[in-house]
Design a protein that fits this description.
45% of the residues lie in helices and 17% in strands. A 3-stranded antiparallel sheet has the order 2-4-5. A 3-stranded antiparallel sheet has the order 3-7-6. The protein is an alpha+beta fold and 384 residues long. The protein has 16 helices and 11 strands. Helix 4 runs parallel beside helix 9 (165-179), helix 9 (165-179) packs across helix 11 and helix 14 (324-337) runs parallel beside helix 16.
Amino acid sequence: MDEDDASSARPMRVAAVLARKGGEDFAKPGKLVEVRFVKGQSLSLTASRLMALMILAAGGDAWRDISHRMRKADIRRSHKGNERIVDMLEELHRTLFAEDDLSWRGKKATKRFNLIQASWEEVEEGDKETGWIEWQFTADARRLIQESETYAVMNRQAVLGFRSAYALKLYEEGALRLHRRQPVWKVDIVGLRAALGIDETKYSDFAQLRRKVLVVAKGEIDQLAHFTVDWTETRRGRAVAELEFRFTPKDAPAQIVTVDEVSRHSAGRRARRRGEVEREVGPLPPGVEPPESPAPRAAPARPRSAKHGAVVWERFPDGGLQFGPTGQAAREIALKVGGGWDVDLIADAYREHMGSRLTSLSGTKLEKSWKGFCEAFYARRGRP
């Protein structure tokens, strides 16, 4: 492929445009998203983030056979030193990826390769924040970039906000499929493990994989991404054989909530995701790490009905919305903003959407969550 052909590749044109805008969004070529790990290998969360930042920094020039550069300060964020950058670079160098190919005899073969060819890290005696790293992508990485016809638009703050490497990888898969306007991803268990880089020795029981990987990933994606993710499981006998993921773009109100969330400090994010009481955290001084968990606080007083003094919004009802003060209050909201849909139908969808998080919601947080879901349900489906 000559330079003119390569420069005309759509992902690179989009990457160049996004780079010129100077925002938080960037394009990752589709073939880099879908390239699979060699069996038994995967990238850690920090190395996955660094790779994403490298793609962002390279922008529309990622396909070129040149060196790319980035400040260490753009990588290290809240870390106290740069020693982890060395670990991340070395991990990227030694991690192998695989793709189906043909041998020199025309036989089916598996090709293994790296994505990083060489890297340089400045060794600073003074302020380590001023240092730079430099790297070159391998010929195989550049080829994948050139051959990509689609791309995933990702957000830098969202990428840096993920705390699960599996969640970040599923986020990339979802962003790619939404851009293709193919929001459904059907994959068997072997393919899912290969795509997310789940070691074959981990989570051999699907119940563990669901709880430790999928539920965690869904929680983070629903909170930080411009879309939500759900899945259904297909069984053969008693074993789960295939999954169907569905990625759904968020409506405007939910997008605003997401933008606010990714711009906030990560401390307290898990509590916010679970609907728990959390402490507001402002910018921390350099070198100061956030606490492991917020200090214990007294439980807030339960909101009470102005008319009768009965406890309202104590817990979302398990059954129909016609019994108890909370059920009746929820019913009134659904009738008012639910667009004419059956209130119990919306309630069932809400319970499924919230899952285990629903048991921790109460008070005004539960009321706002329910009202927002009713509005979003109507916005997505229109009137019945």
